[in-house]
Amino acid sequence: MRSLRFTLGMVIAGLALTGVASAQEPVRNLQDLIGARGSDGEYQMKQRGYNYVRTEKSGGSAYSYWRESRSSRCVTVRTADGRYRSIVYAPDFDCQGGGSHSGGGNWGDSGGGSHERGVTLHRDLNFTGLSETYTNDVPDMRKTRFGDDHATSVSIGRGCTARLYRDLDFRGSYTEVTSDIGDLRGSKVGDDSVTSLQVRCGGGGGWGSSDNWGGGDEWGDRAGSKPHGVTLHRDLNYTGVSETFTSDVPDLRKTRVGDDHTTSVSVSRHCRARLYQNLNFEGAYTEVTSDIGDLRGSRVGNDSATSLRVRCDR
Q: How far is residue 259's CA from residue 77's CA, in Å, rounded to a whole number?
């Protein structure tokens, strides 16, 4: 009898251990994704036949749940610091209730965008991962819960439009968004690059209208979208350290942007500029009447402007 009880005990213990092992068993054909960035890993998961179910947060990690197409087994992916840290099989109940999410609606949505009123940025592809919804302009995404350089997809509420900028204060390259985009890769702003955001919502939604913005362009010339004057940028396509000028500068060495550093230039409405290779408006120059994202090939060249003349009609 004692022997029988011992045998039964061993069997039960073995089954229990098997259940634990099964729940923590690594998904072998996905182990190469360990260390991958969340958006890249998600793309690979879908390519390999895994169907997204939901995402939830616990502590400093996010856990996304997936169904393996060929076996219908549940898989959980732990993401921390924006990268995949573990991929293991999970109990089936973890994959029940697909599309549910925690954190007040900010931790993923499998249904093609949240469509909350406003503009919602998502850290991962196809409107998944950490997200946050905005109804007003954000000149510095670093000050938000979502953070800068993290947006990979964006969903747009009814009647809204957004501009996603690469640089602070609505500067640099931008992508204008009027409908959901599940993958910002290939857009002008790119993925993991959004640093500031402008939002326009109107049409009876109570979220503001173009009447709030000056000029014929509903985006206005406010808050740095294009400061009045001539802006020199150290890097291509209006990125990097920049400074805006409204009067002549005979010696750029005394400025924040410095001399021999200008690579692109943006010009606000009714303004124009001359960029000179030498001090005191001497030497070769390039006359600029509209934005130039790359001064290479111009007469003054890139990283060569040493003095600047500015003319604005108003």
A: 49
